[in-house]
Design brief:
By secondary structure, the protein is mostly helical. It has a single domain, classed as MFS general substrate transporter like domains (Growth Hormone, Chain: A, Up-down Bundle), CATH 1.20.1250. 79% of the residues lie in helices and 0% in strands. Helix 5 runs antiparallel to helix 14. Belongs to the major facilitator superfamily. Bcr/CmlA family. One of its GO terms (biological process) is xenobiotic detoxification by transmembrane export across the plasma membrane. Keywords: Cell membrane, Membrane, Transmembrane, Transmembrane helix, Transport.
Length: 407
Amino acid sequence: MTSKRYFTLVMVLGALTALAPFSIDMYLPGFPDIAKSLHTTTERVALSLSSFFIGISAGQLLYGPLLDKYGRKRPLYFGLALYIVSSLACYYSDSIEMLIATRFFQALGSCAATVASIAMVRDLFPVKDNAKVFALLILILGASPMIAPTVGGYITTNFSWHIIFLILAGLSVLITLAVIFLLPESFRPDPHYSLKPKPIINGFLTVLKEPQFYTYAIAGGIAFSGLFAYVSASPLVFMDVFKVSGKVYGWIFALLSVGFIGSSQLNSALIKRFDSRQVVNAALIIMVSASALFVVAASQDWLGLAGTIAMTFIVLCCVGLISPNTSALCLAPFEKNAGSASALMGAFQMSVGSLVSIGVSMFTAQSAVPMALLMLAASGLGLIVLLIGKRNIKKPVKAADAGFVAH
């Protein structure tokens, strides 16, 4: 594969991977304006974020079998078309109920891009390059929290929050064109693959019976929900509690994303010296400690705006180390069922994330304590699951053995 071709594939797959996060991050600064426009509260607006997470959770399980049955591109086209239509419906939303519903369908469309892009990494690149490609995708993914909230803040301030969804529809059109002309079909459709419930369930059960998969999928998914706690609660914490403007919030969000993205890139260097399992263990222990300190400091009012940003930054750094390693370890035992494994892993992450975001919407924003408590719960439960689950892994498949190591 030529370097130009390699670059093109990574960029298109990166754009697909970033579609869902961009859809989340870009409208966050508009929460207060959306609440005012739709005559509701910021907490109820947060339910539109919860419905998005629920849509992604359900959609991942739907698209996994479709990608294995019809190849990668046909289900991807359907998902992108659904995303475009739903984004336009969000643009025309005139009630919070309509926005919550249309965000659900927007998520169903976006998760086709997420599942397909992960599966296509396994299809298009040598296994020895998989972790390197995943790291590059995370780097592209980092453009979302660095760019989207800042842009969303300026759009909301100078125009209207509705315009955000019009822009998202336009971006998805461009991504669709890139998929058509630049991305090859990477998986031959399997006419023998059954879409009847029983074979699909059996396929998922085959994946779920693998101890290495369920241990790292559950532990990683729960720990990853710490990121969802931050994403869901940050508009309330920074704009309602600390009274920063939408523009300033966008810059804070961009700054904090450096922690998540920077640590995920540091991981490429760490796994040259340490096993992925060692990195996950250490990062989870640090995340638990930092979250506990965050809870205590926030409850005692020891933290101002700067202190809250600093503590959140540390926790997000830990999540950035945990996520790529647990993903690699989850998928390491699989080749044939990579699509189903990817879908299950993503579905679990988003299911936990949706529960966390719903939990955030139930709190009245008075301090950063609820966000810190959710981060502590995520890291603590993730560590417990990891310690218990590792006992059932008799013959661990290292990420390096499956090719998930950066070179």
